[in-house]
Write a structure and sequence with these properties.
The protein is of the alpha+beta class and 221 residues long. Helix content is 19%, strand content 29%. Strands 1, 2, 3, 4, 5 and 6 form a six-stranded mixed beta sheet that branches. It has a three-stranded mixed beta sheet with strand order 7-8-9. The longest helix is centred in the C-terminal third of the chain and has 16 residues. The protein is elongated, with a radius of gyration of 34 Å. The C terminus is likely disordered.
Length: 221
């Protein structure tokens, strides 16, 4: 029989190659590490299992000494770069079953669900500051509405957006210009959020309009 080249009896198989590769970090730095494994996820994206050698401390007797330590992590394919002159043959490669099926059948990933476009409920904390009022004053007492990011008013900010809109609609009331109160009040008036007076008024207006055009209403016949 012809001899087959391979490991001898009792000899462990040779380890897979771990060639050097360039890794791009999230902050733009580039470091050199080792490539251990390439794998494809269920969505079809490729990842590279790489390692870099960093410093670590270990206790040797009664002394703390530094030593190199390998740290492994998965980097996306978009953030690894091959190094000229280095071969990457023999590096293990695995693919997800779903990705293989889609590649063979031409099927695509399902479309993501549509995003909810309803207006979000405003969770900003609001407060009303009542300014000092002279005992012989005859006009309305001045008040100022603040949001929780105000640098000059310390709260408490325990009012909702709907309560703030009602407060700023009172005589002598105004939104604070030192914080975002004045801007937010304008936005709420232009695009009322659910639960605010403007939003309710719009809903009632639509209801009245639809009732006016009710085909069963023969009052004007």
């Amino acid at each position: 029989m012809d001899e087959v080249e391979g490991p001898a009896d009792g000899e462990p198989p040779a380890q897979s190659p771990t060639p050097a590769i360039r890794i791009l970090l999230y902050d733009g730095q580039q470091i050199t590490g080792r490539l251990h494994h390439r794998w494809q996820g269920s969505s079809g994206s490729w990842f590279y299992r790489v390692s870099v050698t960093l410093w670590a401390s270990t206790q040797l007797g009664a002394r703390d000494v530094p030593e190199p330590a390998d740290v492994e992590f998965d980097a996306p394919q978009t953030h690894v770069r091959p190094i000229d002159g280095i071969s990457y043959q023999g590096v293990p490669l695995t693919r997800h079953r779903d990705a293989i099926i889609r590649a063979r059948t031409g099927r695509r990933l399902p479309e993501p669900p549509p995003q909810h476009t309803a207006a979000a409920v405003d969770t900003t904390g609001w407060a009303v500051e009542r300014e000092r009022y002279a005992y012989d004053a005859t006009g309305p007492r001045r008040t100022r509405v603040h949001t929780q990011d105000c640098p000059i008013y310390k709260g408490p900010f325990d009012l909702t957006a709907a309560q703030a809109l009602k407060a700023v609609a009172q005589p002598g009331a105004a939104g604070c210009t030192m914080c975002s109160a004045a801007k937010k009040i304008t936005q709420l008036r232009e695009r009322p959020a659910p639960g605010t007076p403007g939003h309710q008024a719009r809903g009632q207006g639509h209801g009245k309009q639809s009732g006016h055009h009710n085909p069963t209403d023969r009052s004007g016949a």
